[in-house]
Design brief:
The protein is α/β, with parallel strands linked by helices. It is 23% helix and 29% strand. Strand 4, helix 3 and strand 5 form a beta-alpha-beta unit.
């Protein structure tokens, strides 16, 4: 667990991008307003996505494609009720697409199908406008 501020977000995003060789699915957990979307926005910015990046709360998923063929799927599952709902929508198919990565906010309903396949990132409130971030790789924290 590491204590961070808003100014640390670019560095954290850069460190997470380094994990994209090992992981294609990144999950972001934490309470409302903890910084999940802010971190995903910075990751996508550093990867070359231009234009606005917003949490897809009402559409469940946004797609960002780069000219080099890389595709990024940004999920917000806050309003989704169950794993069955996720599977019925066919969202799990995006996990298998080549040259693509998934960033999933509110991933808890996916725990049964994501064990050991996603890099979990947890953000929590700290003191004085700080956040506590935990990134787990297997049983180890990064």
């Amino acid at each position: 667990m590491k204590t961070v501020t808003l100014k640390d977000v670019p560095e954290i995003a850069s460190e997470l991008i380094k994990q994209m060789k090992a992981y294609t699915i990144f999950t972001f957990s934490g309470p409302l307003g903890a910084g999940k979307t802010t971190l995903v926005q910075e990751i996508l910015k550093q990867l070359g996505v231009t234009g606005p990046v917003q949490s897809p709360t009402y559409t469940y998923m946004s797609v960002y494609r780069l000219p080099d063929g890389r595709t990024f799927y940004h999920f917000d599952l806050y309003r989704l009720n169950s794993l069955d709902d996720f599977l019925t929508e066919g969202f799990d198919e995006y996990f298998l697409k080549k040259n693509s990565w998934c960033f999933i906010e509110w991933p808890e309903i996916l725990d049964p199908i994501l064990k050991n396949t996603a890099l979990p990132i947890t953000l929590e409130y700290g003191d004085n406008n700080t956040r506590l971030i935990t990134v787990k790789k297997g049983d180890n924290e990064l």
